Amino acid sequence: MAVYTQVPAEALSAFLARYDVGELVSAKGIAEGVENSNYLVDTTRGRFILTLYEKRVDAGDLPYFMGLLDHLDAKGLSVPPAIKDREGIAIQTLEGRPACLIKFLSGVSLSHPTPAQAEAAARAMADMHIALADFPHDRPNSMGVDSWRPLFQRCGHSLDQIAPGLYDDLGAALDRILTAWPRTGFDRCAIHADLFPDNVLMLGDRVTGLIDFYFASTDIRIYDLAVMHSAWSFDACGATYHAEVGDALLRGYQSRFPLAPHETAAFPLLASGACIRFALSRAFDWLNTPADALVTRKDPLAYVRRLHHYERMSRIA
Ligand SMILES: Nc1ncnc2c1ncn2[C@@H]1O[C@H](COP(=O)(O)OP(=O)(O)O)[C@@H](O)[C@H]1O
Ligand SMILES: N[C@@H](CCOP(=O)(O)O)C(=O)O
Questions:
Q1: Is 194 in the pocket of ligand 2 (CB under 6 A)?
Q2: pTM for the full predicted model
Q3: CATH tag, 115-312
Q4: pLDDT over 90 at 284, yes or no
Q5: Range(s) for CATH 3.30.200.20 in the chain?
Q6: Pocket of ligand 1 (CB under 6 A)
Q7: pLDDT tens for residues 233-258?
Q8: Which end of the chain is more exposed for a tag (fewer CB within 10 A), N or C?
């Protein structure tokens, strides 16, 4: 459930009156998502998404995210830019929260992507990277490699409450990954950094939208593909690797943007880093989200199992 801030109809009508979008017809809270409050808003002129940014999105980062979406939209990619009001303002305040009215995109996110769907989604990621090559703004990745040790330390020995031995297991993997992590020599650009299946909208085998850019930041370009590979190529609990989906992702991406030999060689390491990142953020949330909170906690062990898979791989052919 992701509606943390309730918006009364009167306040929403007054908000919409700033825009040329017609009048309010209906507004429904969207259950999916964990970070922000999202509403599906219908007006006399169309359908929109209203997002109110909650604690985890820093309002100071919104101009970067909205600039990135405008950049991709201007190049014809299917992403949802924020609508500007009559004064040209996209980032507003509603019910005390930063808020944007966002273009609605059709499509559904998949729970069990097929190889053909994975291939199309990875092609869309490569097209996004090509389009971002001249995006001029930087944002350090707040969930990037330098955040993993501090996050591990904040979880501390409480990790063993999730699974006995988890503190030692993740600590040893973190040492190996941080020692080997490439600091130079890899192409960097603005990346999505969270392109899970729930952040790709599709109709059949066609990608209709990439959404949820709120972790976008400057980082190693192929790390973005590694995040995607770790999110798409396993069953939900991370125990079974679906090679046909994993191979399709690499094929789709490389149909637009071939990997250089050093990128292929480092792929299992980059994917291990992606797994540590999501294992730790999920573990932190697991340990710090009250059991009666509205939001569903995601299983950190599903990423620990994926981590073990990538650490066993020496390289992807
Ligand atoms: N532009 C959009 N067009 C259509 N649906 C959207 C759009 N943005 C978000 N959604 C819907 O809202 C849900 C939650 O959005 P998301 O950005 O993933 O939230 P959160 O940042 O809270 O994780 C998505 O799964 C999708 O169903
Ligand atoms: N994809 C991350 C959590 C971030 O959630 P999102 O709804 O903003 O994509 C995970 O699965 O741990």
A1: yes
A2: 0.96
A3: 3.90.1200.10
A4: yes
A5: 9-103
A6: 2, 30, 32-36, 38, 49, 80, 102-105, 109, 198-199, 211-212, 214
A7: 999 999 999 999 999 999 999 999 99
A8: C
